[in-house]
Amino acid sequence: MDPKTAKPVMMRFGAIISEKRKLLRMSQEELAERVGISQESLSRMEKGVIAPRFERLQLFAEALECSIADLFRGEEEAGECAYTIERLLSPLPRQAQEEIVGIVATVARLAAPR
Fold it and tell me: SUPFAM superfamilies, per this entry (predicted)?
């Protein structure tokens, strides 16, 4: 892959795994342990500095309760969903936001393909 093409893909992958990890209220240490890498490597992946090995993609998908395709979805899709969620939650008190995020995380776990 051309380095000019690879960097945006790595950045998008990093942003998506960071977003999904936070939605599941998972620490970097916990996710790193689940996929068998160091916390430092995960941090570098989330920043788009390095890419995961191909064989780790399924481990990321399982740990983040999504498909491998979800780890590479387009920025427009991710941005649109994030914007909608932010718009709906921002007027609510912080505690209500946290409770709703917990409910959504539970529903996402239940709806995830097994």
Answer: lambda repressor-like DNA-binding domains (SSF47413)
6-34 residues labelled b (16+ CB within 10 A) or e (exposed): eeeebebbbbbbbebbeebebebeebbee
**Domain range list for the chain:** 3-111
DSSP conformation class of 91: T
Alpha carbon distances (Å) from 93 to 41, 97, 98:
35, 6, 9
Here the tokens at position 29 are: 């240490």
CATH of 3-111, one of 1.10.10.10, 1.50.10.20, 1.10.260.40, 2.40.50.90: 1.10.260.40
